[in-house]
Amino acid sequence: MRVILGLVVAAALALGARAQQAGEQPADPAIQAVIQSQIDAFLRDDFETAFTFASPIIKGIFETPERFGKMVREGYPMVWRPSDVQFMDLREEAGRLYQRVVVRDAGGALFALDYQMVETPEGWQINSVQVLRMPEVGA
């Protein structure tokens, strides 16, 4: 299992190789806490709490925690029910901050995700999540 996780980390680092040129930042515990708190809320099916970590733009699009929860369950099952979460690099691209996260879904598949973060008067919030293609890793 450690070998597989090591390969996942290596693959995620390969995805983030361009982050070095794009403004890699030191880890931000506040950003990681927001993402982890939202994932924890998803694991409890507490979409009302999970919705509080979404940016005003996301809240405006989905309008209710129920609609937001339906979108996450159907479109991002790996975020709704991850079995493992690893925080990778934080980087700035074109003035926007992205936190790379690698998750393992309930079936064991690995996904690299970019969380776009925005700072609001309420603190850091999640503005979008993009699923990235994981590079092929040979055995």
List descriptors:
5-stranded antiparallel sheet, Nuclear Transport Factor 2, Chain: A, 139 residues, alpha+beta, disordered N terminus
Lay out the secondary structure:
Layout: H1 2-15, E1 24-25, H2 29-43, H3 47-52, H4 56-62, H5 65-75, H6 77-80, E2 84-93, E3 96-104, E4 110-120, E5 123-132
Antiparallel strand pairs: 1-2, 2-3, 3-4, 4-5
- Tell me the quaternary state: single chain
Proportion of strand residues? 25-35%
Gap between N and C termini: 13 Å
* Radius of gyration over C-alpha positions, nearest whole angstrom: 15 Å
Mean pLDDT: 86
Total helix count? 6
Indicate the overall shape.
Answer: globular
- Proportion of helical residues: 40-55%
The helix/strand order is HEHHHHHEEEE
The largest sheet has its strands arranged as: 1-2-3-4-5
Question: What is the CATH architecture assignment?
Answer: Roll
Number of strands: 5
* Biggest pleated sheet: 5 strands, antiparallel
